Amino acid sequence: MIDALPGDIFHRGQILNNTYEIEGVLGRGGTGEVYRARNLISGRIVAIKALNAQFSGQDGYIELMKREEQMRDIRDDAVVRYTECSRMDQGHVFLVMDYIAGPSIADEMLRRRLEPRELMIIAHRVAEGLVAAHKQGIVHRDLSPDNIILRDGSPEKATIIDFGIAKDTGEGARTIVGNDFAGKYEYAAPEQMEGRAEPRSDLYALGALLLAAWKGQVPFAGMTPGEMIRRKQERLETGGVPEPLKGLIDWLTEPALAGRAPSAAAVVEQVGKALKGPAVERGRTAPPTKVTTRMDAAAGRRSGGSFLALVLVLLLAMAGGGAWYAGLLQPFIERLTEQPLPVAAPYTLSASAGGGLAAPTLAAHAPDAAAADAIRAGFATLAGQPAAEAAVTLAQGMPGPSWASGAAAVFDAAQGLDGWQIDLSDMTARISGLAPTLAAGDKARANLETWANLHSFALGLDIANGPRILAPQDVQDVLDDIATCGPLIQVDPPADGYALGATITIEGGALEPDFNATISTALAGVIGDRRVVTSLDVLNQNLCTVRNELPPLPSNALSIWLGQGSTGQANLTGVFRTGENPVVDVLIPANVTTGRLWVMVVDNTNTVFNLLPNANFAETDITRLGTVEGSTRRVRVLFSVTENQADSRLPKAEVNQGDYGKSEIIAFLTEGDLFDTRRPGDESIASFAEALATTLAERPGNIVGFASRILETRP
């Protein structure tokens, strides 16, 4: 479990629905959190996935949770079991499932390299789980190393989790996230790039994650949509993977559906047969044909050496031991008795940048001293230090005339990469590293592809785009430049920066429905290999005019509650229909005992209604407002029709035909007065925005708490 944070949805010891006691946080994401909990009735340990408040009222996310809960119909030990989907009185929606104790494959990849037999066992187990899911017409669509948990650390107990974007393949069924792409690009099958997913798509993902686990690195899927689609049409690079794991991965990841494994059941059968055969161990497979051929050639060269020795004996006999003959034959004798170079098969170069306390390393073959000197010189330019003489071994068996020049030139082509690893094996090159930026990564790829073409190497690249750690302020600088409807905020940015592969979640307002694409484009050159997720409110110009005057403000746990005036029930969606009577409460922690409260409605009719203070009620001191209920002070600012009938001074609202659109309730908690004079009951957007800008500039730090909530009216 990880450390608790003040903004967490639930806290340790909290009891949900009189049943589940929270024990701690297991993980956090852009839309919610996952907790470990204990069922107080049965004692069973469970995992609870909870949606953040802003998503618990959105139909799409609720539907996603409901669909994931429907996975409870799948009864298989290799598939996580779902129990129920529930909602708390406070509005949070949560999903209860089995707690799987153990690391994910992604966790294990960070710790060690998984062995081939372990991966074959995992493949067999996961395929069994997929058989059960596919029988129910469910395609996972997001199978990846972080969605496979090794229960108790055992490959034999691998368990599939997180069916949040699973696709129902039944006739007429639809997916939660539509028929567009869903999943992780690195593991997605080619057909998923076109929005299509079927059972064999999960098999491709299984093969891709097995390859990633064997190599210990996430496969590179491309940087642009075009590159991603092109790469998905190519076979994955499985050179060096031992059999039968290699054959299994090739079968599972065949780009064409017709050539791919036909079903999860077929995979279970074939892997089961392989596991019953000889143990699968790294490095214990038969050598490739080309290696065997080269070794045969070496044997021929050794026979030639024996023949030369025989010639030498005959020449010495002819010389009769005389000094004149000996002097004449000496150069020829020395040349014949010179030891031949050993044969290297395969012919290799391996170089690493090292890291931490480890120094850069080089181990290579070369055909002669001049080539060896060139390789050492190239290494020194990239590593920043010379290579030892012994780092390069002279050997026969060079696979092509351009190998030596290519080995010397590869270091210059890799300039600009950090943490580089260069491996040449015959005419195949595998090169990885970290580029400081997207632009630097594109340049390095272009240089290395040019190098490979020039020297006739088959090239495999795994270049990540940095920076290695991304400062949240670098992201915020970009967001501040492009914001059009108030501040764009990063959700829970890590204090020590975003690591490679992290997800950056952005919240805020937008005028255009496709503004999320604008954000992604603007950040592309800054974030490197990280993912951007946006949660934007598409608002009208009136709301954006006011939001544009607001800097990022502290919340101080302030929140806004919306309800139905006719029933008193909470309205989680914030949507009200014709004839309905919205009521609004501002919720303040009871332990906040100082400050002044100011509340207004920014309406979609170019009007701001000042609710507190107003013409009838001038009080703003929070200790004199509302009532304390448990740990919360509740201050009503927009009242029901019944309350208004009892006291006509209390402001109320009813949805009238034609007055449809989005409005925003905003509340400020301040140390002193927000404005010098009481604002009118209603005023224009421009008037209010001007006054707000003035007071924010004149009284920095006056606002100690802020909350807002969209209220939408529809027919």
TrEMBL record:
> Keywords assigned by UniProt?
ATP-binding, Kinase, Membrane, Nucleotide-binding, Serine/threonine-protein kinase, Transferase, Transmembrane, Transmembrane helix
**UniProt-recorded Gene Ontology molecular function terms:** ATP binding; protein serine/threonine kinase activity
Q: Which residues cross the membrane?
A: 307-327
Domain Protein kinase, which positions? 20-280
Q: Which residues are ATP-binding?
A: K49
Keyword Nucleotide-binding found:
yes
Please name the Pfam families in this protein's record. Answer: Pkinase
Is Cell membrane one of the keywords UniProt gives this record?
Answer: no
Instruction: Quote the CDD domains the UniProt record gives.
Output: STKc_PknB_like
PANTHER family the UniProt entry points to: MITOGEN-ACTIVATED PROTEIN KINASE KINASE KINASE 20-RELATED, SERINE_THREONINE-PROTEIN KINASE NEKL-3
Q: What is the recorded name of this protein?
A: Serine/threonine protein kinase
Q: Which organism is it from?
A: Tabrizicola piscis
